[in-house]
Amino acid sequence: MPSYPKHLSSGSECPPLKENQLRLYSMQFCPYAQRARLVLAAKNIPYEEININLVDKPEWYLKKNAPGQVPGLEWIDHDSKETKFIPESLIVSDYVDETNSQNRLQPTDPYLKAKHRVLIDRYSGITTAFYKIMREDPKQGVEDLNENLKIYEEALTNTFFGGSKPAMIDYMLWPWFERFQFLGEAGFEFNSDGKLSKLAAWVNAMEANEAVQKIKVPAALLKKFLEGYKQGKPQFDFQ
Question: Where is the GST N-terminal domain (predicted)?
């Protein structure tokens, strides 16, 4: 659970940052922030989580990160005592992996790492289609999503994209798959024609993964958030 469960908004004060503690600026329902939480969970790294209201952003957070996006990682450097901050889900995730040697998630082979990065970068085709379904053109979005999913069905040659166990790529792709279940009303049904059998098996394996289970957002709350998001009125805190 976040240290400050309520999403902080404008007019709030930044909670004091402690030494020897990683802080993750997040939003409970954000798939990009979920990427960073998955990596932290997979590597068993303790951290403090501060949730940010992405519609009414705190002034102090905009000073740290002008775009106001999450995730953001912050800590006090042990030697210089300087406060350091880095944004962006891929950058945060790579930094966490590179600075904590246990259970490395990125491949050590540069070629394999490059191939994984290509799939991660091209994943924008899936994320764009997902948001098109949610708020723009559902019919076209469903067509685009099904077409882009074929790329990942073909690329999957083992239980996980990382091989016999999840790697960085698996955690970077996962959050949107967790949200596909809420696209039914728009006409999308994952693997409806049975042609994504390898991806379907991957989904089952990921759902059983300890890190995925640990930080999974309750489906009922995620559904409520997405309903508000579709209407352009996202709600961040629920009683």
Answer: 20-104
